[in-house]
Amino acid sequence: MRRNLWIGAVLVGLNAAVAALTLVWLPYGPTEMSGGRLSPPSWAHPAGTDRLGRDYLTQVMIGARIAMTVGIGAALLGGLIGTTLGVLAAFARRGLDDALAATLDILIAFPTLLLAMLVVAASDGASLWTAILAIGLAMSAIIARLVRILTKRVLAQDYITAARCSGLGWGKITIAHILPNILPTVMVAVALQFGLAVIAEASLSYLGLGTPPPNASWGQLLQQAQSTVFRAPMGVIAPGLALISLVLGINFLADGLRDLMDADEEIQP
Q: Which residue from 205, 188, 194 is spatially nearest to 239, judged by alpha carbons?
């Protein structure tokens, strides 16, 4: 339904606007101790302050920037790698194709967060770009498996045989026939992976494997506030609501895109 598309666009747009705003303005500095410890919401601090006296609203706004950066970066990286591997697997000979399919199934069997943790552990240390790389690589197997299936469906069509008989090379066939037919479904899948990437980044940060301080990820804020949740509940409520709004927005947006592009329609030449 178009309603889902609009709801998703509004929720994601608001988070994107907040993320963009942090590049030019913040209520307080990220490390500025501008209020008392664990102060309740007030005009000066609408979301209160943390245990060090830092403004919660500022931290949540910075978290929006980190979430959008990691979500977009990981989804694009996973989509690019997954699409490339999926198309190559579909063109591979039967033995190699079966081996690649089995490898993808094994990778998909592992939780995305676990694979991301392994990539972070193997790198030099936790950082924003490490999180993007880890989550993107972990999600690429899901996209690759989907693209492989979709590409094989397209290759089975009669017009592909006709194109080959006319002398058209595989490269041109991929650009002219395969990609246009699979992209609508892949775009919806990548949009859903965007939401999963946001959750994965928050989970990594909660475990201390995400973006390091002073950049405040939503997961990091939730982890820091868990010991003071009853004294200062806004420390959990503010980043929690922000995370929920973005993930729900992405899911609504993906559903709207699926309906708009009719991703499940019959493949046409």
A: 205
